[in-house]
Amino acid sequence: MDVDDAKELFDVSLRVRINIAITVLMLMFIGTLVAVEVDDSRRSVAEEMEASSRIAGQLLREATRADQGFEPMWVRTFLARLGRVRANEIELIAPDGVVLYRSPPATYKAGRNAPEWFARLMIPAPEPLAIPLQGATLRVTPNASRAILDAWDNLSTFALICGVFLIVANVAIFWFTGRAVAPLERIAKALSGVEHGALDTRLPLLPGREARQIGESFNRMAAAVEETVRIREQAERTRGQLANERALAREIQARIEEERRMLARELHDELGQTVTAIRSIAASIARDTVTEDAAKRIEMIEGLAVRLQEGMRELVPRLRPLALDELGLAEALGDLVDDYRQHHSGLSIDLITSGDLGAIPGEMAIALYRVVQESLTNVVKHAQASRCTVNLAAARDEISLTVEDDGRGVAEADLNKAGRFGVRGMRERIESFGGSFAFAKIGSGGLALHARLPLPAIVEA
C-alpha cells in the first residue's frame, strides 16, 4: 500500500470518524465490563467449588469414620442412597483400580457445557480428595462444569445485550452526528464555491451556536474577499487606463517635440539665413552714398534684423535645443545652464552629471531636459534663491535627477494646486516613463526636486 492509498483509506468524513471513535470507546467500556464480569464469575465459581468440596469431604469423612471396619459394599450402598452431591464427582475405587461406584451425572442443564477455553479461564484443573477406607478408596473430585456453564450463559446474555445496545447506540449516534455535521458540509460546499470563483456565495442561518458563528464569519469573509477582488479588478483597470494614458501622453509629447524640432530647425536654417541676408544687404547699401534719411532707414532695418536674430536665438532653444540632437544631453544641459547664468547673474547654478548619459533614449532625454528647464524657470521666478544645484546621475538601472535651491521654499501642497501647469507637466513627463516625482524641503529653507526613472539599459560609468 503506497502513501496515496493510505491517504484514501484514512480520508473519511468527520461523521464516520466520530462514529468510529465513539464505537471504540464503547467497545473498550464493554470489554472492561466483560473483564469485570468474568473475574466476578471466576471468584464465585472458585468460592462455590471450595465450599462444596469442603462440605462434601467433611460429610463423607464423618459418614465413613464409624463404618471403616465394614466392607466397601456398605459404603457403596450409602453413596447410592446419598445420590449426587452438587459440584462434586464421587468415586469408590477398589484396591485393584475397579470403580465400585460413581456419582450419577448432573441433571441440571444436562447435555450442555461451556467452551473448554472458558472453563480453563474460570478455574484450573481441580485436585481430587482421596479418603482411604478398609478395602477401598473414596475419591472426591470437584466438578464446576455447571457453575461455569451458568457463568457462560450469564456472560453470553450480557454480551448479547451489549451487542444490541452497541448497534442501537451506533445507529442513534450516526443519525445524531449526521444532523450535527450537516452545517459543516454546507460550509465546506460554500468554501469550495468561493475557491472556484463564486465569490457571491453566502450561507443561511445555520442551526447550532458554533455553526451559526462559523456561518456568520464565513459570510463576512466572503463579502470582504468579494470587495477586495472588486477593488483589485478596479485597480487593474485603473492601472491599465493609466498606462494607456501615459503611453498616449508620451506619444503626444513625442509628436510635439518632433514638431518643435522641425520648427526650430526651420527657424534656425531658413529664417536665420534670411535675417543674415537682410543684414548683409542693409550693410552693403549703407556703404553706398545715400541720403541721411535713407541711412537712418537702413540703420533701422539693420537694428530690426538684429533684434529678430536675437529673438530667434532665444526662441530656438526653447522650441528644441539643437545641441541635444547634435551633442547629447550633457552638452544641452550645459548650454541651458550657461544661458541662465548669462541672463541671471545673481543666481549661481552648478551642474553635476555622472554616468553614461549618452545611453539615455531620446524621448527620455528630452523629458529630463524639459524638467530641468522648467525647474530653473521656477527657481528664477519664485524661489528668490542665490544658489541652485542640478545633479543628474545615470546608474545601472535608473536615472536620478535632483534640483535644489536655497530660496524661500514652497509647500508641495501649494505646488500641486490648480494652475501650476509647469509642475503638473514635469510630473506627467516623469510618471509617463514609470518614474517617481516629488518635492522636499531642505535644511537651508529651500526646495529640492527629486525625480527617478527606471532604466535597466544604463551602465554605470
Q: Strand order, main sheet: write it out.
A: 5-6-7-9-8
How large is the radius of gyration? 58 Å
How many beta-strand segments? 9
Number of domains: 3
Q: What is the straight-line distance between the termini?
A: 65 Å
- Helix content range: 55-70%
Main beta sheet strand tally, sense and closure: 5 strands, mixed
SS class: alpha+beta
Low-confidence stretches: 457-461
- Strand/helix succession: HHHEEHEEHHHHHEHEEHHEE
Which shape, going by the Cα principal axes?
A: rod-shaped
Q: Output mean pLDDT.
A: 77
**Beta-strand content bin:** 5-15%
Tell me the number of helical segments per DSSP (H or I, 4 or more residues long). Answer: 12
3D structure, described in words:
By secondary structure, the protein is α+β, with helices and mostly antiparallel strands. It folds into three domains: 12-175, no CATH class; 204-320; 324-461, Heat Shock Protein 90 (2-Layer Sandwich), CATH 3.30.565. Helix content is 64%, strand content 13%. The strands form two sheets. The protein has a five-stranded mixed beta sheet with strand order 5-6-7-9-8. A four-stranded antiparallel beta sheet has the order 2-1-4-3, covered by helices on one side. Helix 10 (362-383) links the parallel strand 5 (348-354) and strand 6. The chain is rod-shaped.
